[in-house]
Design brief:
The protein has 176 residues and is α/β, with parallel strands linked by helices. It contains six helices and nine strands. α3 packs across α4. The radius of gyration is 15 Å and the shape is globular. The protein starts with a helix and ends with a strand. Bound molecules: 1-O-pyrophosphono-5-O-phosphono-alpha-D-ribofuranose (PRP) and adenine (ADE).
């Protein structure tokens, strides 16, 4: 494990049996509250995209907003919130999805991305990939060119990364 991976991994707290029995919840609030770890996380997420012309960062509610906003700022890109249903005021596209511990629906404004715009999807964690696959489908539905997806944490045993790659999307992660 590289020293940066080790530093970030040690800043993440694990909580057993949350939100349901059998789930080991990877809690990034400890990483976010650590100034050095938070800065290094954002730097590592951004570094592969330095110099690329990216129009928008899309982030999933809620943890994807925190990291996606910081990445958007660093890349001088716009930010697109992908929200849980019923929160966005204008016309939306909506999709049902399942994740490691539940099912839900998410939405995005129909005009959040113009056809052909280059978008990177950012979230804290990929587990089953249900959330990220749903987000890529929404983005593609309105014509976005999803050039990459990045996450702080990958839970490889749950197979999400492979599902995204099967859609032809590049996936970058920092910690397994
Ligand atoms: C978490 C996490 C990802 C998703 C990953 O979000 O932030 O978005 O689960 O799981 P998956 O790969 O199995 O789909 P959650 O829905 O718990 O929302 P939150 O950020 O509001 O806590
Ligand atoms: N989202 C899906 N699975 C998760 C986990 N194990 N920890 C934190 N967030 C998650």
């Amino acid at each position: 494990m590289s020293s940066i991976t080790h530093e970030l991994a040690s800043a993440i707290r694990s909580i057993n049996d949350y939100p349901k029995p059998g789930i080991v919840f990877r809690d990034i609030t400890t990483l976010l509250g650590n100034p050095r770890a938070f800065r290094r996380t954002v730097d590592e997420l951004v570094q592969p995209y330095a110099g690329l012309k990216i129009d928008k960062i899309a982030g999933m509610e809620a943890r994807g907003f925190i990291l996606g906003g910081a990445v958007a700022h660093q890349l001088s890109a716009g930010f697109v919130p992908i929200r849980k249903k019923g929160k966005l005021p204008h016309d939306t596209v909506r999709i049902a999805y399942s994740l490691e511990y539940g099912v839900d629906e998410m939405e995005m404004h129909v005009d959040a991305v113009k056809p052909g715009e280059k978008v990177i999807l950012v979230d804290d964690l990929i587990a089953t990939g249900g959330t990220a696959v749903g987000a890529v489908q929404l983005l593609r539905q309105i014509g976005a060119d999803v050039v990459s997806c990045c996450f702080v944490i990958d839970l490889p045993d749950l197979g999400g990364r492979k599902k995204l790659e099967a859609l032809g999307v590049e996936v970058r992660t920092l910690v397994e």
